[in-house]
Design brief:
The complex is a heterodimer of chains A (about 500) and B (about 160).
Chain A lengths: L1 H8 L4 H9 L3 H26 L4 H20 L5 H21 L4 H23 L6 H15 L1 H24 L3 H11 L2 H20 L5 H4 L2 H20 L7 H28 L1 H11 L21 H23 L9 H34 L3 H13 L4 H16 L2 H9 L15 H8 L4 H4 L3 H6 L7 H5 L4 H14 L1
Helix pairs in contact in A: 1-5, 1-10, 2-12, 3-4, 3-6, 3-7, 3-12, 3-13, 4-7, 5-6, 8-13, 9-10, 10-12, 10-13, 13-14, 17-24, 18-20, 20-24
Chain B lengths: L14 H17 L9 H20 L5 H13 L25 H13 L8 H29 L3
Helix pairs in contact in B: 1-2, 1-5, 2-3, 2-5
Classes of the chains: A mainly alpha (about 500), B mainly alpha (about 160).
């Protein structure tokens, strides 16, 4: 965007620009600057969004103002042909350059894509209008006063005006030595005039620094000098002219120019940095600019009154994540709903986990005590069954059926078991009625599949332990043991 | 920056899967000769407990869950076996960030929780919460299964 701006003002072939700036009378040059100003102002807000995270509404507002102003300008009659063609040529070149520049502004390109064209056409119209009648003057002053009336802008402009040249000096350190001489040159000028000259210097340097592609004329170190000279003359005229027609707009001109320049500088630096880490840049744009957010990132927006820097945004995302999971845990842990506060909730969760772990320990103790009394002698049967189970994987029903077939094999009750297979699920609640001998009953106990296993626990409590048929309620989990036990007993018998 | 969030998945397999795994590991235990010697009750308790945890880890998470991975790894270490799990995408090993802004009490609690949940040392707080949720589900399942077993095998 800023590159394009530079193109607008400086980069196009010097002859054209020179003609453009020198040919009109001083007042028209003035007008020219003034008319370009809206353009500048219009361009600068996006950078502001980068830099200052300025709200887009202001930009919108300005845009609308300038739009109205410009439209009136365009509609105003009699653009001179030569100028217009020059402007058109400018536009063309600019467009071409913009196309080449597209790669540089990766982050901003898509967002600013639309404004670019409009801008070009507008700049053309600006070039065209200087020869036109006074009415534009009226229109022109309106946005400018409006602009200077904006307190935030005035503040910023004041800041920039004081360190504009210094920051430029700072930049030359990183940049090309050629510029030093020119800075001295520009230092002679008044502040008002110096800024355009600075800009003239800045643009080629900036261009060469940021990208290899430069118009052939500009790459030689002399040409910028030409620029500055020509610009100086223009700006001198302008500075002479400035106090006369409009005293109030003139500071704002310089300020806008300076501001734009500085912001451009920063934008340029930023962009160069951003080429390294586009992520951050993207995020930055994300935070402030709703249109076209990259899809890879979560779109985080700060609500009113919330901090907007990346750290607090990240922290907020993190907290939200934790809160979400906390809710999940809250549902899992009994008694956690009554507790408020994260720390207390965590405490509750910890207690619950601990109690569960203790329970596991306790139960394993119990199991170990159970083991030696009753289960020791049927290890083999269990193992074989478990092998079956494991081979069948974790498919429950399957394993249940396997068990069934196994028991079926054991007891040789073919017909009975077949009926059992069919009435598998219905058997649960009234199994005893259909069963006569205990062996058969045991065969039946394998029918409730493991899915029903836990459902029947409560049922199991109802039955007396002594009752053989109570096995039915216990399900498969310990059935292998019992079954094998009975099997063993059978064998022993 | 937070990457695209996966939905929190704390689904746990059915109880019977836990039961099957537990029975299997129990039977494996019983096959061992040392297990049946009557004098080492403590040893047996430990073994059963370990079997319970390992079978739970196998049943629920396998190597997909951080806590189950940690459990299995620990168990394997105790058996002097070297296991290699398939690698997870990217694991940040040291996530214990200290920050002044965070609630110290909360952090302390989270730290306690980290010590309870296997493999919790390397988790960030949000991950820890997720794993804890899954772990709690699995543990309660395991407890139920074991309770059933104990009830079923209770001496008459």
């Amino acid at each position: 965007m800023d590159n394009e701006l530079f193109m607008n003002t400086e980069l196009p072939p010097p002859s054209e620009m020179a003609m453009h700036f020198e040919q009109p009378s001083s007042s028209s040059a003035m007008l020219n600057w003034a008319l370009m100003d809206p353009n500048l102002a219009r361009n600068s807000p996006p950078q502001d969004c980068f830099m200052w995270e300025k709200s887009t509404e202001q930009q919108q507002q300005q845009q609308s103002i300038f739009d109205s102003a410009l439209s009136s300008l365009v509609s105003s009659p009699t653009p001179s042909n030569s100028n217009f063609s020059g402007g058109g040529g400018d536009g063309f070149i600019i467009r071409e350059l913009i196309g080449k520049l597209g790669n540089i502004g990766n982050t901003s390109g898509d967002i600013y894509g639309a404004p670019m064209n409009g801008n070009v056409s507008r700049s053309a119209s600006c070039y065209a209008t200087p020869m036109s009648s006074p009415p534009p003057m009226m229109n022109r002053t309106a946005p400018l006063t409006e602009f200077s009336g904006d307190p935030g802008f005035a503040e910023r402009a004041a800041k920039f005006s004081c360190f504009g040249s210094r920051s430029f000096n700072g930049r030359t350190n990183s940049g090309i030595p050629v510029n030093n001489g020119k800075i001295v040159n520009s230092g002679k000028l008044t502040r008002v005039s110096s800024t355009p000259a600075l800009k003239a210097l800045a643009s080629p340097e900036f261009a060469s620094a940021s990208r290899p592609m430069i118009p052939a004329g500009d790459s030689t170190p002399k040409l910028p000098g030409e620029f500055s000279r020509k610009r100086k003359s223009v700006s001198k005229g302008k500075s002479k002219e400035n106090p006369l027609p409009a005293a109030s707009p003139s500071p704002s001109f310089s300020k806008t120019a300076e501001r734009k320049e500085v912001s451009e500088e920063k934008g340029g630096k930023r962009r160069r940095e951003d080429e390294g880490d586009e992520e951050e840049g993207n995020k930055g744009t994300n935070d402030t600019k709703p249109p076209e957010p990259p899809k890879d990132y979560i779109h985080v927006r700060a609500r009113r009154g919330q901090a907007t820097d990346s750290h607090s945004l990240a922290e907020r995302v993190r907290r939200e994540k934790i809160g979400e999971r906390m809710k999940l845990l809250q549902d899992l842990v009994p008694g956690c709903n009554k507790v408020t506060g994260k720390a207390l909730m965590l405490d509750e969760i910890i207690n619950y986990v601990q109690s569960l772990q203790r329970q596991v320990e306790f139960l394993s103790m119990k199991l170990s005590s159970v083991n030696d009394t009753r289960l020791e002698f049927n290890v083999d049967a269990l193992v074989s069954k478990d092998a079956m189970i494991s081979s069948s994987g974790s498919r429950v029903h399957e394993s249940g059926l396997r068990l069934e077939s196994l028991s079926h094999h054991n007891y040789n009750n073919n017909s009975q078991l077949h009926t059992n297979v069919s009435s598998n699920n219905m058997m649960l609640h009234s199994p005893m009625k259909s069963l006569e001998p205990s062996a058969l009953a045991r065969g039946f106990t394998h029918l409730p599949t493991l899915t029903q296993f836990t459902d029947t626990i409560s049922q199991y409590q109802m039955f007396s332990e002594e009752d053989l048929q109570s096995i039915v309620g216990m399900g498969v989990a310990h059935n292998p043991n019992h079954e094998s036990q009975s099997q063993n007993m059978k064998i022993e018998l | 920056m937070a990457s695209a969030d996966k939905p929190i998945n704390t689904d746990v397999p059915e109880k019977d899967v836990f039961a099957l795994h537990f029975l299997q590991s129990l039977s494996n235990l019983r096959r061992q000769n040392t297990f049946n010697s009557p004098e080492k009750t403590n040893d047996r308790v430990k073994k059963i407990k370990k079997a319970a945890y390992v079978s739970m880890a196998r049943a629920a998470g396998g190597t997909n869950r951080l806590w189950s991975r940690a459990l299995l790894r620990r168990a394997a270490k105790e058996n002097n076996k070297i296991v290699r799990f398939p690698r997870r995408k990217k694991r940040v090993t040291c996530l214990r960030r200290r920050s002044n802004r965070r609630d110290p009490v909360e952090e302390e609690e989270a730290e306690r929780l980290r010590n309870l949940v296997p493999g919790g040392g390397g988790m960030g707080t949000s991950k820890l919460m997720e794993e804890t949720a899954h772990y709690i589900k699995c543990l309660s399942m395991q407890v139920k299964v074991m309770q059933c077993l104990v009830d079923g095998l209770a001496p008459k």
